[in-house]
């Protein structure tokens, strides 16, 4: 070790301090090495990426990766874990609010906390900090999530009619391509009710199968979400969407039927070169602005998740019971009742009157 001192007397004092620190680490069976938060975070990112590549990753790993890169490393990167104080955590939470432009919901805070805790646990496993050392944790309290604003039937008709011309516009070929992908993505969410991002982006063509009842066939889709894996039945309209996506990507299949027979193992929502955008949120927001559907009647901004809310609303209006809908959407009947029960009396107005 070097004391980093040029003066002999200062070096003597510094060497005593280094010796005492070393003996303390030996007594606690700690590593002599030290790592910054950034170094530990980079190791964790590599582990998340490796797990995903080996098919062992969870859908939430994408969220952890985003949180670590976007928030944790930029703020905590220069510190060692032993330097993180409750006051520093409070400063982080204030900084994060300013970066996000809002106070995060409880679910968002829990995701951030889980990603942060993985890095702390990595330090403990490497004996960089004592097992019993209390590291200040991130706050997980926040406002409960609200149901996203949905679209009306008229608005969905407007959106579907607007997209064919919109996807062909753009100053660059890349812009037009990502708009074509966005159109298919929007229709897929609307016709299946799956969660955007975590359930949709990992989907591969091999996860799609035909399901027969007598002579009638349905498209069955295997998805893995935060409530575990499940099968769902897609609306028939999604077949046209997927056929168009096959043509867009230049795949060597005439249609979906031929592709499914092959067991093709490639991600569904990718560009023509096989790359996958991290998110289509920005493109979808531009789409809604262009067709004047960004805000609902209450002035709330819509997002891709609004399509899942719309799917649930339409399904209830069509008479799908909440137990079937909950299984289809990978959620609980309690969640369906909490967010949608107030809508059902209005949907059944004809029967109730």
Structure notes:
By secondary structure, the chain is mainly alpha-helical. 53% of the residues lie in helices and 6% in strands. The chain is built from 15 helices and 3 strands. The protein has helices at 8-27, 37-53, 61-76, 86-100, 106-125, 153-166, 173-192, 238-249, 256-262, 281-290, 305-317, 322-329, 333-340, 344-347, 349-352; strands at residues 208-213, 216-225, 228-233. Helix 7 packs parallel to helix 11. The longest helix has 20 residues, at 8-27. The model has no long low-confidence stretch (mean pLDDT 87).
Write the SSE topology.
Elements: H1 8-27, H2 37-53, H3 61-76, H4 86-100, H5 106-125, H6 153-166, H7 173-192, E1 208-213, E2 216-225, E3 228-233, H8 238-249, H9 256-262, H10 281-290, H11 305-317, H12 322-329, H13 333-340, H14 344-347, H15 349-352
Antiparallel strand pairs: 1-2, 2-3
Structure in a nutshell:
This protein has 353 residues and is mainly α.
Supply the helix-strand structural class.
mainly alpha
Instruction: Please give the count of helices.
Output: 15
Helix content: 40-55%
Report the radius of gyration as a whole number of Å.
26 Å
Q: Give the percentage of residues in beta strands.
A: 5-15%
Q: How confident is the prediction overall: mean pLDDT?
A: 87
N to C succession of SSEs:
HHHHHHHEEEHHHHHHHH
**Got a strand count?**
3
Spans where pLDDT lies below 50 across 5 or more residues: none
């Amino acid at each position: 070790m070097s004391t980093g001192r040029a003066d002999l007397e200062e070096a003597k004092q510094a060497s005593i301090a280094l010796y005492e620190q070393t003996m303390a680490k030996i007594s606690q069976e700690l590593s002599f090495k030290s790592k910054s938060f950034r170094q530990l975070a980079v190791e964790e990112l590599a582990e998340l990426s490796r797990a995903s590549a080996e098919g062992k990753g969870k859908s939430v790993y994408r969220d952890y990766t985003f949180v670590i890169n976007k928030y944790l490393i930029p703020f905590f990167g220069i510190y060692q874990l032993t330097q993180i104080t409750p006051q520093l955590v409070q400063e982080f939470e204030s900084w994060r609010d300013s970066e996000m432009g809002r106070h995060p919901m409880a679910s968002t805070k829990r995701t951030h906390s889980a990603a942060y805790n993985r890095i702390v646990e990595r330090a403990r496993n490497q004996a960089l900090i004592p097992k019993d050392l209390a590291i200040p944790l991130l706050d997980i309290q926040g406002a409960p999530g609200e149901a996203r604003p949905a679209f009306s039937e008229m608005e969905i008709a407007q959106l579907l009619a607007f997209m064919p011309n919109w996807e062909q516009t753009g100053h660059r070929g890349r812009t037009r391509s990502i708009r074509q992908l966005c159109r298919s993505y929007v229709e897929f969410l609307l016709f299946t009710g799956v969660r955007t991002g975590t359930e949709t982006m990992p989907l591969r063509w091999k996860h799609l199968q035909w399901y027969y009842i007598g002579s009638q066939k349905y498209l069955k889709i295997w998805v893995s979400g935060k409530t575990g894996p499940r099968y769902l039945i897609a609306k028939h309209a999604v077949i046209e969407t997927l056929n168009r996506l096959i043509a867009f990507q230049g795949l060597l299949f005439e249609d979906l039927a031929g592709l499914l027979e092959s067991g093709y193992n490639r991600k569904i929502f990718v560009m023509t070169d096989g790359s996958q955008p991290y998110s289509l949120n920005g493109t979808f927001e531009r789409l809604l602005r262009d067709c004047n559907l960004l805000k609902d009647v209450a002035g709330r901004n819509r997002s891709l998740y609004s399509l899942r809310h719309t799917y649930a609303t339409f399904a209830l209006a069509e008479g799908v019971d909440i137990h079937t809908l909950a299984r289809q959407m990978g959620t609980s009947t309690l969640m369906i009742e909490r967010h949608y029960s107030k809508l059902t009396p209005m949907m059944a107005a004809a029967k109730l009157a």
